Amino acid sequence: MASFNKVILLGNLTRDPEVRYTPKGSAVCDLGLAVNRQYSLDNGEKREEVTYVDVVLWARLAEIAGEYLKKGRPVFIEGRLQLDSWDDKQSGQKRSKLRVVGETMQLLGSRPSAATGGEGEESVGSGSSYSKSSSKSMSPPPRPSPSEPDDDEIPF
After folding, report:
1. Which band of pLDDT confidence, cut at 50, 70 and 90, is reported for residue 89?
2. Strand 128-131 to strand 94-107: parallel, antiparallel, or no bridges (unpaired)?
3. 103 near 126, Cβ under 8 Å?
4. Which helix (H) or strand (E) holds 20?
5. 8 A C-beta contact, residue 63 and residue 30
6. What does the domain layout of the chain look like in residue ranges?
7. Which of 22, 70, 90, 156 has a CA-to-CA distance to 38 between 20 and 30 Å?
8. Tell me: domain 7-39+47-133, CATH 3.40.50.300, correct?
9. Is the whole model's pTM more than 0.70, yes or no?
């Protein structure tokens, strides 16, 4: 039997990321994400519902989230669903929680900058993309050296 476990979310952080480290040194980051859905009733009245989703990120992805994300910031997450089960120590009852394990992340909106009081002027969607196997840094791509012509300078 075939199966497929893929989640795609775009929402705003409900709290600052919480980064911690396992005893072996792997970074783990817990995020709260609010995802909005807007719809209209049969009578034309517009409604909005919010779904709150817990997301966990691992390794370098967790460190990037802890460094660049803050409460309220929009983010795009791709990942998979995971069901965690445990016995409640106080009541002895079996407990479970469904959450998303993030495998890729795209930072949306603008980068905070000191010159504009924490908010840049880039539009939503001009973000940086990361995955758990990505080693992408936040520095811009290298510019051509002065001896190499830029594409804009080629006359044809």
Report:
1. confident
2. antiparallel
3. no
4. strand 18-21
5. no
6. 7-39+47-133
7. 70
8. no
9. no
Q: Provide the pLDDT confidence category of residue 27 given band limits of 50, 70 and 90.
A: very high
Tokens 């791709």 belong to residue = 78
pLDDT, tens digit (0-9, with 9 covering 90-100), for 101-128: 999 999 988 766 544 444 443 333 345 5
**Alpha helices of the chain — where are they, by DSSP H?**
59-68
61: enclosing H helix or E strand: helix 59-68
Q: Cα(131)–Cα(10) distance, rounded to whole angstroms? A: 15
Question: Contact 70/119 with Cβ under 8 angstroms?
Answer: no
pLDDT above 70 for 36: yes
Q: What are phi and psi of 23, to 5 degrees?
A: -55, -25
Phi, psi of 105, deg, nearest 5 = -145, 140
In order, the DSSP letters of 83-112 are EEEEE-TTT--EEEEEEEEEEEEEE-S---
